[in-house]
Write a structure and sequence with these properties.
By secondary structure, the chain is α/β, with parallel strands linked by helices. Helices cover 43% and strands 20% of the residues. The chain contains six helices and six strands, in the order ββααβααββαβα.
């Protein structure tokens, strides 16, 4: 469900919740952050899987999400993974586009979704469901 269209008042109908967010300039999506705040108690009662997509790789990428949600949810989550990133230069304003090009040129992060990591994440969801 696209978080911008999520209108549930509760998560009761769901046994499991998978939440993914992008990291942009070190911050997770504000709507996702609000979702975690609003539904923290209910999420703590569900099977919870979290993933992030952003330039920071591996554990560093996952830690960007972990730093911005409650420690209780992080500890409760079955998995918190970084699954790669994509950069859509056309959607960036000129200043951010220039910054992003400089970051990519100097730091050379791995751009692209990590298919093997995505498959492993999905397999783990299916294992415990």
């Amino acid at each position: 469900v696209d978080i911008r269209r999520f209108r549930q008042t509760e998560l009761a109908p769901y046994d499991s919740v998978i939440v993914g967010t992008s990291v942009y300039m070190g911050n997770i999506n504000s709507k996702i952050k609000q979702f975690f705040s609003r539904y923290a108690a209910e999420l703590g009662q569900k099977k919870l899987h979290l993933f992030v997509c952003g330039l920071a790789q591996g554990d560093e990428g996952a830690s960007q999400l972990k730093k911005q949600i409650s420690e209780e949810l992080v500890q409760h989550a079955t998995q918190v993974k970084h699954l790669g990133c994509e950069v859509n230069y056309e959607r960036l304003n000129p200043l951010y586009r220039a910054i992003m090009k400089k970051i990519v040129a100097t730091e050379k992060p791995k751009i692209g979704l990590l298919d093997d990591e995505i498959k492993a994440f999905a397999a783990h969801v299916l294992e415990i469901e």
